[in-house]
Hints:
2 domains
Amino acid sequence: MNSRALEQAVRAMCQEVQSTSKKSPDWHSLTEEELLYEMAVCVFSSQLLFEVAVAMADRLRMEGLFQVEGGYFDCAAYEASVVSALSRPVEVLSGGKMRSTMPRFRNRLASLLASSLAEIHGQRQSLRGLLSMASDATRARSVLVEKVWGFGPKQASLFLRRIGYDANLAVLDIHIMDYLRYTRGINATPSALGRLSSYEQIEIAFQDIAVEFGHTVGCLDLATWITMRVAKREAMLCV
């Protein structure tokens, strides 16, 4: 598959994504508990398969671990509670069947989550408050990278997209970067993508492609992700 054929495939997938897309949530209507749940999904998914990350976050929500009040926050006790909750297998849907899997990296992920809540709620703040005070999506992302342990630009962008804060932020994962390199000659190291300034430069290029295609960044993002996964799996593309 050459670059022209790949772009045509992504364009076609954009049409399908647009016709089947669901309405994004309105973050204003989400509770603090729901925002913390989405934050955890994004932190966990940076280390694990997305389905496993969701199952782990579901476990924590079921055990009330996102019902956090402002003020004094016992970081060590909270971290221990998260580790305990994730020390039992979680159920994950895979291949149309449910399977049990033991959460990996639970100590590290519990530490990241506990540290994030200490940084936010321990300082008498909230995710909702931080988002409300941000002047725009770019500033909101910058604040999240600063406050949420385990959030780089990509995870913060994914979080903001999932809660419906802004559909014009790009989630520059490996599939998107492979597409940009293969079709536009744009390349970047993982360390560069970890810097907001470098991330935003590449994001602008991806936003320009979205305008060229006549779709939102979110639509192009998902269409590219699906197309690249299929192309790689079917060995239609060597990257």
